[in-house]
Amino acid sequence: MRVLVTGGAGFIGSNLVRRLINHQHDVLNLDKLTYAGNLESLDDLAGHRNYHFSQCDITDLEAVKKVIGGFKPDWIMHLAAESHVDRSIEGPRVFLETNVIGTLNLLQASLAFWKSLSNDDRAKFRFLHVSTDEVYGSLGDEGYFTETTPYDPHSPYSASKASSDHLARAWYHTYGLPTMVTNCSNNYGPYQFPEKLIPLMILRALRGESLPVYGDGSNVRDWLYVEDHCDALAQAVEYGRPGETYNIGGNNEMKNIELVKQLCVILDELRPRKDGQSYANQISFVADRPGHDFRYAIDASKIRDELNWVPKQNAATGFRSTVTWYLNHSTWCDNILTGKYTLDRQGLAENSN
Ligand code: NAD
Q1: Does the beta carbon of 57 sit less than 6 angstroms from any atom of ligand 1?
Q2: Ligand 1 centre and the CA of 82: distance in Å?
Q3: Most exposed among 25, 159, 164, 258, judged by the fewest C-beta atoms under 10 Å?
């Protein structure tokens, strides 16, 4: 298939592009290359005959139309987004511009393109909108998010993703564009920008810095290895039913503090501190994130039953291989940290726009 992936230079996008190429698809990566976009994450694919790249901002409708019209995709997998909750607290505007208006532009450009296709090509075209479980809000100690859980987003990030999910569904119901939405739990694994919890903790630990845990560390997240997420996206775009939503989760719930302690144990074994102490001694509790959702947990039985998807990695194997990856890719990490981003706390400054 000819697959247009938006946000392919990001964390999940780069893993997805690699997976699609490995499965013989022809892939165009459309990415603006914001602070989170990094072509070094795709170094191994440079020059591959099935890999193409177009630097493009999805807030620019004409540019998006040009890329879609030129590439003529069978599938569009839309991942480009501003993705970090803490940044959305300080600067929400770009989240609305990229996640909402950008998605609108992609839907409009896709619709015009789809209408121009033959009946056969129209029938195989798919638009997969990749989203988060954060749109469902926060759970207490019990229960799981299902595809019918009412939306209740709490952060500017999740509100912008919720809005874009509704747009993707509306384009199916109103115009017939074959869209699908996936809502996934927290991902981890190779190539994740180190502002996110797991790489942040690994890199700060190795630098001898404190390991800041928000609040009392009791917030619960469900963790999914990124390659399992990419497998689920591939199943959804190929076999999913237009108009449907699929929840994706790892069945791997953990309190943040337990997760950080587990990372410390792995680091103690793989890269012991010179003073023989545990990395856990670097843990410090800091002011909570404003509006911090207590618990996310996913019921992924629909995608399991309909599309035959289950995650392959468990917490033990996934966390260990992720720590190993960061230990073995210090140049990738160092190149990010020579830029503006310095592993510092975000999300406490005044809302700037
Ligand atoms: P990321 O921040 O690592 O990557 C986002 C990519 O989008 C970057 O390459 C960036 O350059 C690109 N981008 C941003 N603004 C753009 C614009 N205006 N035009 C074109 N490209 C632009 O994000 P990620 O963690 O890989 O997440 C990818 C998608 O998956 C997002 O839509 C996110 O909401 C969703 N998601 C993420 C997670 C997670 O745990 N990371 C979980 C569920 C869903």
Answers
A1: yes
A2: 6
A3: 258
